Amino acid sequence: MQFGIYAPLPHVTVGSKAIASSVAGALSPLPKGALDPAYELARDVLLEADAAGFDIILFAERHLGADLEAWVLASAISALTKQIRSMVAVHPGLWHPELIAKMASSLDRITHGRMAINLITGWNIEEHTMFGGDVLPHNDTRYVRAEEFVHVLQGMWRETPFSAKGEFYPVNEAQLLLKPATPEPPEIFTASRAERGLDMVANVADWWFVDFDKTSETTEDYMRNTQRAIDDMRRRAEARGRKVRFALNPFIAFGDSVEDATDRAVKLLTPDEPDADVRKMVQRIGPAMKGGCLGRPQDVRRQLQAYSEMGIELFLFKFAPSVEAVRDIRDHVIAPIRALA
Fold it and tell me: What is the pTM of this model?
């Protein structure tokens, strides 16, 4: 059983005064000698997660916003960590695979094999066009492009020179003179719910973030739907002679009961009168709260074990980021579960 954490960034974080301060001051120079508050929060929380036994960090990517750039933040943090892996998001519509192959090899060597790729097929048209890319929002060819992207990445890591006759990424004897740190290349994580996107997962991904079913009314409903999704993906992957591993993104919070944990979580997420962006974020988190990881620590551990028996190997937790919250997860989940392993 593996455990993950999101790097605190504005578009994936609510309930953080440091993030709010970073966003408020994003268009102004920093005070003399000061660091960006979002970076300081990320550094403190993620180094604590490294020490606490978390296995992986997801550095999500958003260009059209006050977020620190994912690859820059990942490099800065990863150079300070000891054990935890760094999974960095990349949009094929914004980056060329030859460049990402070099960037990933660099980060992999800096961390001695502790980096991974989070492949994003994209949806934000305005962001992509503003930053020189395209999203292909209404066409399944974006999944074909993503598969080509991975093919070029892995080919560049594997051999030099590398050539490929692709529709989107034709490569002619490209040379990557810096290979990843270990014989096994960085793993590919991704998420998709579209039919062609699920085939993309089965074709090229090492890990799939099982999509939260927003129609589920109860945790039991959600677990049944999750099992169906896992079974379907296994069939798709096996038909291609491949194996895909499974990850989940539940919201986690502790309390004397589910209701108590939920109330505590809501207060953390919305400490003040929430603005429109905060309300949107809480709505997005809502489905993750149906995963059943709220309540007494022993009940949360039991729920994680049930998911593990279904085939989930990685839990990338959602929570209001703080050093204290990381320590709570360490004490109530990671340490007790690993003591039994």
Answer: 0.92
Tens of pLDDT, residue by residue over 234-261, are 999 999 999 999 999 999 999 999 888 8
Q: Is residue 229 situated within a structural domain?
A: yes
In the numeric block, which tokens belong to residue 315? 């839990």
* Burial 51-65, CB ≥16 within 10 A → b, else e: ebbbbbbbbbbbbee
Task: Kindly report the CATH number assigned to the domain that includes residue 190.
Answer: 3.20.20.30
| Neighbour-count burial for 266-296, b at 16+ CB within 10 Å, e otherwise | eebbbeeeeeeebeebbeebebbbbbbbbbb
CA distances to 42, 229, 242, 244, 336 from 235, rounded to whole Å, are 38, 10, 10, 10, 33
Domain span at residue 123 reads 91-211
User: H or E stretch including 229?
Assistant: helix 219-239
Distance CA 247, CA 151 (A): 22
Report the percent of the chain where pLDDT is more than 70. Answer: 91
**Residue 334 carries which DSSP code?**
I
How many H-runs (helices) and E-runs (strands) does the chain carry? Answer: 13, 12
